[in-house]
Amino acid sequence: MAKHTYDFPKADHTVDPVVFGYDPETASLKILLIRRGRKGEPFFESWALPGGFLDMDETLEKAAHRELCEETGLKVAHLEQLATFSRVDRDPRGRVLSTAFLALVRPTDVKGMDDATEARWFDVTKLPPLAFDHAEIIGVGLQRLRSKVRWEPIGINLLPERFAIPDLRRLYEAILGYPIDSRNFRSRVGKLDVLVEDITEMRHGQRTQLYRFSPRKYRTMQKQGYVFQI
Predict the structure, then answer these.
(1) Catalytic site residue from 118, 152, 161, 173
(2) I need a surface site. Which of 146, 147, 152, 212 has the fewest CB within 10 A?
(3) pLDDT, mean over the chain
(4) Could you tell me which residues come within 8 angstroms of residue 113 by beta carbon, excluding any fewer than 6 positions away?
(5) What is the arithmetic mean of pLDDT over 4-16?
(6) Number of other residues whose CB lies within 10 A of the CB of residue 34
(7) Which residues are within 8 A (CB) of 191 and not within 5 positions of it... i.e. 6 or more apart?
(8) Do residues 97 and 12 make contact, with C-beta atoms less than 8 angstroms apart?
(9) 80: annotated active-site residue
(10) What is the band of 66 on the pLDDT scale with cuts at 50, 70, 90?
(11) How far is residue 141 CA from its own chain's centroid?
């Protein structure tokens, strides 16, 4: 790629994947963070979102996938562009813009790699002090996620393949941050027509009906759109 000389200052650009996961054992919403490990750079040894600078030959989305994999070993099928953050003083190294991406996954084992010495899933309600403006970025990601639950059946990306209706309700409670009436939730989920009865299993001495999402119905709902009043 040809080099260019500019007569005016040029901002750098980074990408920051905001990766949410859900732990059904503790009914808690998680987020993936890394510990910064490059000496001499700002916020050394602080916790931060995975991410880094955009290379000249890649798109923002490609850079986000690359940085996420390089620093944590995690590969995701889809990243949704969240927002661009441009506060003038957000990075002590200079004028740096950051575009954040949102991903929803079932948490898997991660490992700090490249310039990250550690990678770990944190409960979103118990975050450590964060580098840069990453607390703000996570807040925007959480707002987007809370909006998505009203027009997209996000459980397909976060729950195990088979789950009971109470499992789904607890996921929504973890995301929204408040309790949901169980009877109303069951009724409204039934009206979505996106779940398929699968098998029954014994839970706490009782037979429990398990469900799974229908990918076909899910894709149809994504195209048509809907409003899920919780």
Answers:
(1) 118
(2) 147
(3) 90
(4) 70, 71, 72, 73, 119
(5) 83
(6) 27
(7) none
(8) yes
(9) no
(10) very high
(11) 7
The DSSP code sequence of 107-152 is: -------TTEEEEEEEETTSPPPBSTTHHHHHHHHHHHHHHHTTTS
- Average pLDDT (127-145) is 97
Return d(Cα 69, Cα 65) in angstroms, integer: 6
Distance CA 125, CA 20 (A): 12
| CA-angle at 211, arms to 214 and 216, nearest 5° | 0
Query: CA 228 to CA 215: how far, in whole Å?
Result: 18
User: Would you state the pLDDT for residue 89?
Assistant: 93
Query: In the structure, how many helices (H) and strands (E) does the chain have?
Result: 6, 9
Pairing of strands 28-36, 116-123: antiparallel
Q: Who's near 21: CB < 8 A, 6+ residues apart? A: 29, 30, 31, 32, 104, 105, 106, 107, 121, 158
User: Contact at 8 Å (CB) between 154 and 29?
Assistant: no
User: What is the amino acid identity at position 122?
Assistant: F
Lowest mean pLDDT among 95-104, 138-147, 189-198: 189-198
CB 97 within 8 A of CB 85: yes
d(CA 75, CA 105): 10
Q: Give the number of other CB atoms < 10 A from CB of residue 112.
A: 19
